[in-house]
Amino acid sequence: MKILIERPKKEIEIEFNGKVKDLLIKLDINSEEVIIAKNKEIITLEDDVSNEDEIEILSVVSGG
Amino acid sequence: MKCSKCSNNAVFTNPTLCKEHFIEYFETKVKDTIKQNNMIQKQEKVCVAASGGKDSITTLYLLHKFGYNVEALAVDEGIEGYRDHTLAFLKDFCEEKGIILHIKSYQEEVGKRLDTVVPKGRPACNICGTFRRHLLNKYTQDYDKIATGHNLDDESQAVLMNLLKAQINLFARQGPKTKQIKGFTQKIKPLYLMKEKEIMTYSYIKGFNTPYNECPYAKDSYRAHVRDLLNSIESKNPGTKINLINKYLSIREGFSQDKEIRFCEVCNSPCSSQICKACRLKKQVKAV
Q: Are A61 and A33 a contacting pair, CB within 8 Å?
């Protein structure tokens, strides 16, 4: 699975099949601070993602 | 996961809604916040304090969409690689929507850019915030209201920060709408009850594509620590932020501004001493 993380900006590739909320736990990211897009569509923490998906983890925290 | 109101896929949980129903929920809640707090009358002229980030863009977009008479005012602090990106986005946005944009800079007002006064990595929020508030008030004297993009996260952080610093006298200055005080343009916060996560979701669905850019001075600020702490508590105990704000609102009236308002002998801005903080800082900055 290809994942683009907005803050701090980086791109990673990992093996993962499961719920978004579990992916965030695995990446040690607080679900309160991000929204997730799968193939450019927003999904919820309860949705499933798999190795074929392109995921964006977008920061909701203001930069200033 | 499916929307709680139709069979489409949800984009948000708590409330669990699809794109269309989320937009409806979001806009209705902002409209209700404006109405319940009696923020704007239809004939009033409102200036949105805009940075080009998702919060101020959403505020600007919605007030314009709701039919209010809005213009935007941006303050360019002079932080290389940060404000220039968001301002470029803001210019394009305002041009596309036909909204008048005014830009004021520290360079023209103070004589120096922020990044030439404070080295990166050093705390700058105090000096930056003082000049920002000063300029916003100075250049909105012909408007009825200043609207800011402050949201539930910002406001719950502010309440907690003031508690942690034992500055509860500042409680009177917070809230969805500031009190009318001579010399100050009244401030309103239409996104007061919206979480950052909701604003980001709305902004993404609407395709605003606001650039994410972190201020190089904000990373280790006191606010950043309080933000992380509150987010950590909120993720384990959802509702913490709104409970904090509701409790604050229920006791807010008991606090009053303890200092008499005077007018600065240098610039005539409202302040609490002979010379306002912005003029005092300006003098120090010029000496740097």
A: yes
B56 touches chain A (CB under 8 A): no
- Are A47 and B1 within 8 A, CB to CB? yes
pLDDT tens, B163-209?
Answer: 999 988 888 889 999 988 889 999 999 999 999 999 999 999 999 98
Whether cis (ω within 30° of 0) applies to the bond prior to B15 is yes
User: How many domains in chain B?
Assistant: 1
> What is residue B175's DSSP assignment?
S
ipTM of this complex prediction, to 2 decimal places? 0.94
Do the domain assignments include residue B11?
Answer: no
Spatial separation of the C-alpha atoms in residues B27 and A21, rounded to whole Å: 27
Hey, are the CB atoms on B212 and A59 less than 8 Å from each other?
yes
pLDDT in tens, A10-41: 999 999 999 999 999 999 999 999 999 998 89
Tokens for A60? 């909701």
Contact A31 B235 (CB under 8 A): yes
Q: Does A43 touch chain B (CB under 8 A)?
A: yes
Considering the domain boundaries, does residue B282 fall inside one? no
How many residues in total does chain B contain? 288
The answer, for B52 touching chain A at a CB cutoff of 8 Å, is no
Contact A63 B82 (CB under 8 A): yes
Q: Tell me which chain A residue has its CA closest to the CA of residue B215.
A: A64
With 0-12 / 13-18 / 19 or more C-beta atoms within 10 angstroms meaning exposed / middle / buried, residue B180 is exposed
Question: Is B250 within a domain?
Answer: yes
**In this structure, what CATH number is given to the domain that contains residue B125?**
3.40.50.620
Give the structural domain span for B83.
19-261
Specify whether the CB–CB gap between B37 and B177 falls below 8 A.
yes
B23 C-beta neighbours (distance < 10 Å), count: 16
Tell me if B29 sits within 8 A of B37, measured CB to CB. no
Do B159 and B200 touch, CB atoms closer than 8 A? no
Q: Given CB atoms, is A61 within the 8 Å cutoff of chain B?
A: yes
Residues of A in contact with B11 (CB under 8 A): 41-44
Q: Is residue B271 part of a domain?
A: no
